[in-house]
């Protein structure tokens, strides 16, 4: 397969990216991206990166801060999958193998942000596109773009859970053959669930399952502070503008269960394809 087009966060970082003024960082990030750009699935395993002591320190810091917060704030599916992974030294290829043995998903390296249609299509085929570079060390609590901490610590334990993985695949399947407007709506569905979703546990608890929350100890604390709006998840409703590159989300959505959300998504996909039941978002 040829290299996928990168729609954002390519080699030119925006001025508000924490690494914007750090040329050494930018060169390193570009070099790690180039590995993904040149990698072909048919040519073998995902290339290993020898991370610098500074990158290892960033990773170790982020992981230890998050580990302190997970027992109270991560959902039970996350907590039970977490021990499957060795997050000390394992690389994208090793983690992909663990995922394969659990839910038959796999990881593919990517140089930056893909076009939403390409990214969602990957999900339909149990393929998760992942960056391989690290966030800038000056701002470990939150990064405006996905990085290795986000992909591995945030996404992988959740994708090792079957009920959740089926929901993610359903989002991807709904995007196949959908028009551009619906692809954009599904991008928001993805955003407010897979990236920033919360789930109800028992009667009184709300826990995090979204990878963007589980990989940012800044955002995790922000939600725990009680400041943002928490709303029930309904994929048939218009979803708010996503906060991308400009800080924490303004609102978060709560699922009752992954199975319930998957059924709602499959109903949405059926309604999309049924001309007798037109609806607008
Ligand atoms: N903000 C997340 C973090 O700091 O880990 C990374 C991102 C997730 C989704 C978009 S950017
Ligand atoms: Fe992500």
Automatic annotation (TrEMBL):
Cofactor(s) the protein needs: Fe(2+)
Pfam families referenced in this protein's UniProt entry, alphabetically: Biopterin_H (PF00351)
EC number annotated for this UniProt entry: 1.14.16.1
Chain ranges of the Biopterin-dependent aromatic amino acid hydroxylase family profile domain: 1-281
InterPro entries with a match to the protein in the record: ArAA_hydroxylase (IPR001273), ArAA_hydroxylase_Fe/CU_BS (IPR018301), ArAA_hydroxylase_sf (IPR036951), Aro-AA_hydroxylase_C_sf (IPR036329), Aromatic-AA_hydroxylase_C (IPR019774)
Keyword flag Ribonucleoprotein: no
Keywords carried by this UniProt record: Iron, Metal-binding, Monooxygenase, Oxidoreductase
Keyword Heme: no
Family: Belongs to the biopterin-dependent aromatic amino acid hydroxylase family.
Protein name: phenylalanine 4-monooxygenase
């Amino acid at each position: 397969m040829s290299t996928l087009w990168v729609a954002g966060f390519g080699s030119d970082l925006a001025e508000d990216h924490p690494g914007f003024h750090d040329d050494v960082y930018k060169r390193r990030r570009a070099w790690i991206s180039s590995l993904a750009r040149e990698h072909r699935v048919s040519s073998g395993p995902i290339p290993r990166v020898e991370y610098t002591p500074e990158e290892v320190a960033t990773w170790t810091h982020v992981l230890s801060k998050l580990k302190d917060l997970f027992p109270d704030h991560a959902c039970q599916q996350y907590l039970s999958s977490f021990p499957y992974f060795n997050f000390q030294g394992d690389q994208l290829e090793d983690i992909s193998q663990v995922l394969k043995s659990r839910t038959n998903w796999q990881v593919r390296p990517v140089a930056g942000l893909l076009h939403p249609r390409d990214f969602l299509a990957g999900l339909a085929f149990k393929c998760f596109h992942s960056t391989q570079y690290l966030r800038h060390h000056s701002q470990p609590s939150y990064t405006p773009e996905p990085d290795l901490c986000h992909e591995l610590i945030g996404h992988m334990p959740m994708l090792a859970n079957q009920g959740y993985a089926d929901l993610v695949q359903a989002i991807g399947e709904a995007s196949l053959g959908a028009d551009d407007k619906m692809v954009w709506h599904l991008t928001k569905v993805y955003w407010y669930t897979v990236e920033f979703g919360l789930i109800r546990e028992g009667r009184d608890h709300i826990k995090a399952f979204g990878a963007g929350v589980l990989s940012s100890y800044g955002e995790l604390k922000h939600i725990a502070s009680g400041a943002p709006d928490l709303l029930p998840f309904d994929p048939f409703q218009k979803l708010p503008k996503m906060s991308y590159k400009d800080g924490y989300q303004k609102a978060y959505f709560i699922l009752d269960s992954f199975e319930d959300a998957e059924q709602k998504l499959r109903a949405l996909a059926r309604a999309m394809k049924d001309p007798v039941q037109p609806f607008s978002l």
